[in-house]
């Protein structure tokens, strides 16, 4: 519940201009492996795989905010998907 409240507060701050985004360039594959790896560990060792094509794909975004989005999406998918 506290995570939901934190996410809603972050959204409110972002919409109100109280949070400034810090975009930077990064390798998408490494970013996703790191973010998803932490969710899989927290989820009891659930196996999650990601394929990035092309493998050297780069992006420019606020990594902290994007990580928050990816972690929330993967966590939700793990909790609400059948095993297998």
Task: Characterize the structure shown.
- It contains three helices and two strands.
- A two-stranded antiparallel ribbon has the order 1-2.
- The chain has 84 residues and is mainly α.
- The protein is flat, with a radius of gyration of 14 Å.
- The protein has one domain: Histidine kinase-like ATPase, C-terminal domain (Heat Shock Protein 90, 2-Layer Sandwich), CATH 3.30.565.10.
Give a summary of the structure in a few sentences.
This protein has 84 residues and is mainly alpha-helical. The protein is built from three helices and two strands, in the order αβαβα.
- Uncertain stretches of 5 or more adjacent residues: none
Radius of gyration: 14 Å
The span between the termini is 27 Å
Assembly level: single chain
CATH topology: Heat Shock Protein 90
CATH homolog superfamily: Histidine kinase-like ATPase, C-terminal domain
What is the CATH C level class, in words?
Answer: Alpha Beta
**How does CATH name the architecture?**
2-Layer Sandwich
Give me the count of strands.
Answer: 2
Count of separate DSSP helical elements:
3
Topology:
Elements (H helix, E strand, L loop, with lengths): L1 H14 L7 E5 H15 L15 E5 H18 L4
Keywords:
Heat Shock Protein 90, 2 strands, mainly alpha, 84 residues, flat
């Amino acid at each position: 519940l506290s995570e939901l409240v934190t996410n809603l507060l972050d959204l409110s701050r972002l919409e109100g201009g109280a949070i400034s985004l810090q975009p930077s360039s990064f390798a998408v594959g490494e970013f996703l492996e790191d973010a998803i790896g932490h969710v899989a560990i927290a989820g009891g060792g659930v196996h999650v795989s990601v394929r990035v094509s092309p493998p050297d794909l780069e992006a420019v975004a606020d990594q902290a905010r994007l990580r928050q989005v990816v972690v929330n999406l993967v966590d939700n998918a793990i909790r609400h998907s059948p095993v297998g």
